[in-house]
Amino acid sequence: MNTIVIAIFSIAIYLTSALLITRHISQNNPKRTPIYLAWLAVCSHAAYVTLTFKENDGFNFSFTSTASLIALIVALLLLIAAMDKPVEKLGIVLFPTSALMLGLAVTTRSEPHFLHTYNWEMGAHILTSIVAFSLLNIAALQAILLAIQDQQLKSHPPKRLIRSLPSLQTMESLLFQMLSAGVLFLTISLITGFLFIDDLFAQHLAHKTILSIFAWIIFSCLLLGRIRYGWRGKTTIRWTLIGFGALLLAYFGSKLVLELILKRN
Q1: Reported pTM
Q2: Looking at residues 59-88, what average pLDDT do you find?
C-alpha cells in the first residue's frame, strides 16, 4: 500500500480522535471511542515509519523524520498511560501535533541522514534518547495543563475542560511519574552515550551533551526536591518546563537551524 495513503489515513484519524475528545469534554460525556481511534492512528503511523524504513533500507534521521518518530512514540506512550491513568485529555494537543509532524515528514523535502552502520550499542543510545525525550515531552504538557488548572481553579467558575480533569494532587502525582520514567531513560541515554560514543564532547555533539546533562540535573534535582522537601505547584511547573526547554534545544536546536534554515547537512 502507498505510504502516502497510510500517512493521510493516520493524520485523519489523529485529528478525528482529538476532535472527539474535545467534543466529549464539552458535552461532559467521556467515552473510549477517541482512544480506540488514536490506537488506530498510532498503528497506521507506525506502519508508515516501518514501510519507509524498508524502502530506504534504513531510518532517515532528518529533522522531520525524527520529529515524526518522536511524535509517534509520544502518542503511543500517552495511550499506554491512559490505560490506567486519566491522561487521555492530553490527546487534544498531542494527537494534532502527531498529525502535523507526520504531515511534515511526508511533504517536506530534506536531505536524508541515514545511519546504516550503527551497531546495537548506538541503537540502544538512540532508542533510549528518543523514549526519554518522549516521556519528558508528555511531562512538559502535563505541567502546562497543571498550570492552567491551578489558574482556572481560582476563577469562578472554571472552564469545563478544567472541571473534567482529576484533582491537582492527582495531576501532580501523574506529572512526577512521567518525570521519573523520563529521567530513568535519560540517565540510560547519557550512560550509553559516554560508553559507546568515542568523543561525546566533539564539536558537533558538545552542545547536545551539555544541554542534555543540564536537563538531567534539573529533572533530578526536581525529583529530589519533591521527595525531600515536598516541592509542588509553581516550582514544579517552572523547572519542568525549563528542563524540557533545554532538552528540546539539545535534540532539535541544531537540526532545525542547519537543515531547515541554513539548508545544510
Answers
A1: 0.81
A2: 85
